[in-house]
Amino acid sequence: MQLVEQISPHVWILPAEHKSDRPILAAIVGSRRTLLMDAGNSPAHARLFQEQLQARGVRLPDLLVLTHWHWDHSFGMSEWNLPAVAHQQTVDALRKLVGLDWSALESTLQALTRQGMASAETLQHMQEEYGADRNIQVVVPDLIFAHSLHFDLGDVTCEIRHVGGDHTSDSCFLYVKEDKVLFLGDSLGPSVYGGPRTYTANHFLRLLESIYEYDADLIVESHGQPLALTAFREDLNEWEQLARLVEQFGRDRERIVAGLQGLTQVHDLTQAVDWYMAGLEKKPRNL
Ligand SMILES: [Zn+2]
């Protein structure tokens, strides 16, 4: 079982769990309000965070903000029953999921996979998370923003900002200003639905640039763990180099792979090369 951790003066998180694809959930706790970042992948996931916050005497969330629409970030919403803030595209995507027959999980996900809104992994993870209890209620957020929105929670302020990227076009960053904590959601990941995974060098490099424009001390990817800025830079260095090689050599896979030989190669980037190659065949899309 994951246990809540306080990672900065105002921020508590429930760490990620990979078996059923539970992302990090965060509570940003001000003197007047608590903001919840992401709802969880199920009511059970939401309840786990609620119970642990309560046990630690942390003020429970008053409102909720989503980093993007994906099921693992949004399907816990029914359990929270809070005013929910989301980007317009997040709302549009969730609207498409309301009223689907979730008791017939396999066929519903098959149809969504054809529409580019789920994948084989989604079924596997949802079966793991929900077991036989398919009581899924999709909730559509009520407060909609277009570019960014600021929250004054009392002694601590946050900004949700739409950034897009390959993972999903509605991806947002959440920045906790006073604590210098930057949540990236899944924005740095490749696209995961609608065919093979894809990456686009331009999207990836633009996102990295935006991250480094913040004055963040701690950077948090939803399915990773909080990293200090220096550790994050180190971790991302090869990924950045790879994106630059793709920018330079385009479809010339051999030269890209040859370029990778010169890097330290902490991560195995071979798969990522394929994601970039697939990305080059995809129609370009704006951030
Ligand atoms: Zn996602």
Beta-strand content bin: 15-25%
For the sheet with most strands, the description reads: 7 strands, mixed
Distinct bound molecules: zinc ion
What is the annotated CATH architecture? 4-Layer Sandwich
Distance between the termini: 36 Å
Number of strands: 13
Structural class: alpha/beta
Oligomer: single chain
CATH fold-level assignment: Metallo-beta-lactamase, Chain A
In total, the number of domains comes to 1
Mean pLDDT figure: 94
Uncertain runs: none
Strand order of the largest sheet: 1-2-3-4-5-6-7
Question: Can you count the helices?
Answer: 10
Q: Give the H and E element order.
A: EEEEHEHHEHHHEEEEEHEEHHH
The CATH homology group name: Ribonuclease Z/Hydroxyacylglutathione hydrolase-like
Shape: globular
CATH class: Alpha Beta
How helix-rich are the residues, as a percent range? 25-40%
What is the alpha-carbon Rg in Å?
19 Å
